[in-house]
Automatic annotation (TrEMBL):
This is 3',5'-cyclic-AMP phosphodiesterase. The lineage of its organism: Eukaryota, Metazoa, Chordata, Craniata, Vertebrata. The keyword Hydrolase applies. Belongs to the cyclic nucleotide phosphodiesterase family. PDE7 subfamily. Pathway: Purine metabolism; 3',5'-cyclic AMP degradation; AMP from 3',5'-cyclic AMP: step 1/1. GO terms for molecular function: 3',5'-cyclic-AMP phosphodiesterase activity; metal ion binding.
Length: 418
């Protein structure tokens, strides 16, 4: 029974659904201030109350009631600063936390919409604006706000990183619009409805998802199926030939499943072999798909490659989520998962291990594939960030040396990650 608490429950506070005025245009600070001073409602709830997604087309209760105004293109509504930030959406220093605050917690909707628009995909695929917005809002809502790490901001961050990779010369020259659409959608949905605990936890608590997906890529399968569910529900691609929308669903799955960190070595050795033999041919659709898988994998775990101020925040959040799982395990007398025991680990130790055994090997190969300034920047941050964590955890510096020679060695301890 306990496990159900972590199932894909939609935690939408029902009571707020009818409060919002139907036509609430623009996110005004006065509204929030008024509401805050009016009562004792905590600020966080007020923020959710007025969250943009809810007044745009809002709740699931209103689904199917298309009193949405298709003319409210997102660009018209968000405030100037967020809009200004989007001009630098391709920058590796993009501060997604700030962007999320400026958009009142709607970074995923705004960012993804903006990118789809910027790439001309809305026009090219003749996407219905109402359906698209509804899809994006539902995607954002299906991420769990209360997860310290696996929430919609992480999804937005991965989407932004994906955008940076899609613009790398090798990819930009060869990817089709279809590839780009898939890459962005996969990034935005890759952790959809993440319960905030990892697969071993779901298995040992007999969660129904573990049974449903036979203990294999349980979370990733669920993220994919959830994304497909929303695509079908919103009929986003209903204007495309059936075979195309099926192809989108299938390829979305293949991309999302590639983010299963327990299969990293499999993907990495394939990538390595291609690079060694120099036989990646980006004119070939299946090779392009493989490169997209690698790009998404990089985007998913690129936190340690960001500037320290951003990277550090992610590290704190992910460790908080791990330790939270560890606390639940402790409370229920389950075996504590690796990296999840707050008494045996520190943020620094978790990060150093993650960087050494997971991130460095992946980004080293990525830099071989795409030897650009961005790759060098990422490796530069990675080195600096690792040094910063090492300085806080002097005894761990020895183990990072070992890792260089045997990148795959600590496979077991990675199980807890993502
Ligand atoms: C999944 O793993 C659990 C625990 O090891 C086991 O009891 C269960 O039979 C497995 N389920 C499947 C479908 O393999
Ligand atoms: C594309 O690559 C795949 C996998 O390497 C190969 O099986 C296929 O024949 C290639 N297709 C073309 C058209 O070259
Ligand atoms: Zn992720």
């Amino acid at each position: 029974m306990e496990a159900n608490r972590f199932g894909p429950i939609l935690l939408i506070p029902i009571e707020i659904k009818w409060i919002l005025p139907a036509k609430f245009k623009g996110l005004s600070q006065t509204c929030i201030t008024r509401a805050e001073s009016a009562g004792s409602i905590p600020a966080r709830r007020v923020r959710r109350l007025f969250s943009f997604q809810r007044h745009l087309l809002s709740s699931r209760l209103l689904r199917g009631a298309p009193h949405l105004n298709p003319l409210h293109i997102l660009d018209e509504d968000y405030c100037g600063q967020a809009k200004c930030m989007l001009e630098k959406v391709g920058s590796w220093n993009f501060d997604i936390f700030l962007f999320d605050r400026l958009t009142n917690g709607n970074s995923l909707v705004f960012l993804t919409f903006n990118l789809l628009n910027q790439y001309g995909l809305i026009e090219l695929f003749q996407l219905d604006m109402v359906k698209l917005r509804r899809f994006l809002v539902l995607v954002q809502e299906d991420y769990h706000n209360q997860n310290p790490y696996h929430n919609a901001v992480h999804a937005a961050d991965v989407t932004q990183a994906m955008h940076c990779y899609l613009r790398e010369p090798k990819l930009a020259q060869s990817l089709t619009s279809f590839d780009i659409l898939l890459g962005l959608l996969a990034a935005a949905t890759h952790d959809l409805d993440h319960p905030g605990v990892n697969q071993p936890f779901l298995i040992k608590t007999n969660h129904y998802l573990a049974a449903l997906y036979r203990n294999t890529s349980v979370l990733e399968n669920h993220h994919w199926r959830s994304a497909v569910g929303l695509l079908r529900e919103t009929e986003l691609f209903s204007n495309l030939p059936a075979e195309d929308s099926l192809s989108i669903e299938r390829q979305l799955g293949s991309l999302i499943l590639a983010t299963d960190i327990s299969r990293q070595n499999e993907y990495l050795s394939r990538f390595r072999t291609h690079l060694d033999e120099n036989d990646l041919c980006l004119g070939n659709a299946s090779h392009r798909h493989f490169v997209l898988q690698m790009a998404l994998k990089c985007a998913d775990i690129c936190n340690p490659c960001r500037p320290w101020e951003l990277s550090k925040q992610w590290s704190e959040k992910v460790t908080e989520e791990f330790f939270h799982q560890g606390d639940i395990e402790k409370k229920h007398k389950l075996e504590i998962s690796p990296l999840c025991d707050s008494e045996a680990n520190t943020i620094a130790s978790v990060q150093i291990g993650f960087m050494t055994y997971v991130v460095e090997p992946l980004f080293a190969e990525w830099a071989r594939f795409s030897d650009t300034r961005l790759s060098q920047t990422m490796l530069g941050h990675l080195g600096l960030n690792k040094a910063s964590w090492s300085a806080m955890e002097p005894e761990a510096s020895g183990s990072s040396e070992e890792g260089e020679s045997e990148p795959g060695r600590k496979q077991g301890s990675k199980r807890c990650l993502f």
